[in-house]
Amino acid sequence: MEKFSRISDKITQNIGLIIVIFSVIAYFVPDYFSWMTNYTTIFLALAMFGMGTSIDSDSFKKILKNPRDIFIGALAQFTIMPLLAWILAVGFNVNKDIALGIILVGCCPGGTASNVITHIAGGNVSMSVSMTILSTLLAPIVTPFLVYLLAGRWVEVSILAMFKSVVTVVLIPVLMGIFAKKLSPEKMEKSKSIFPLISSLAIILIISGIIGANAEKIAKSGLIVLLIVMIHNALGLLLGLGVSKLFKMDYDKQTALSIEVGMQNSGLAIQLATANFALNPLATLPGAIFSIWHNISGSIFASIRRKDVKEIAFARER
Asked: Can you give the pTM of this predicted structure?
């Protein structure tokens, strides 16, 4: 089990590189991966169940103990990224499918990968996890409403249908994971290294499937989507950092909030596009590309912040 745990940690820590490798393979040999899109809901539900098994009563106590910074993070998450998405969609005058996909990404909660990146960056992991939990639990209400508000000019949005989708693939699996840990804490503890691996593999399969299924379309419009995704992600990280500095948070909390805002649950964006907007097939593309890019940019950002942490510590010792 110890060896398996090390393998799981390696895959989780290097998920960005693994996603890039599988995405490139899926692009050039799409037939081997496109079938995976039929199981997007199942894969994402597995990832969310894995997240649920990492949550316990202490997680909620941390939210209640330090609500200010965590609620600021959630508020920043659901204002900065959705508004940036809308501005970019309008500013670049993209077609309605791409616009919808960008807005779906912007309106989703924080991604679980943000917790790993925060750890690598030397940020406040406890705060990162708490923000992810809070934004995920708020998502069934907030995400459908924001998509309805911001994407309505391009497509017809059913708040109820999206609410059902988010509840089905996010809230229920997360709650099942929480209850599974509550009912069998010893078994969950023994198998705790399995669930991050399952979550990582699920996200890899979702993204590879979307890339494979849209290989031809990516060749035509992939560059403009990549550019928008890069701007969206970079501004999210920078504005998140700005908000944390505005509220005079500690350095490690600044890192956590910035990463949490900039990194989205793009797997959920893909699932929502697949389940609710079948007439807009390209709406899955921004989510897939965001999944690839935010792991790359997040790793770069983490290395910069970690270096700064060491320099600050060194300066204090002098």
From this structure: 0.83
Residue 264 β-bridge partners:
110
- Measured CA angle at 238 (ends 235, 244), to 5 deg: 135
User: Tens digits of per-residue pLDDT, 136-187?
Assistant: 889 999 999 999 999 988 888 888 888 888 888 888 888 888 888 888 877 7
What is the set of domains in the chain, with CATH numbers? Answer: 1-308 (1.20.1530.20)
Q: Give which of 275, 297, 294 is closest to 284, Cα–Cα.
A: 275
Rounded mean pLDDT of the chain? 84
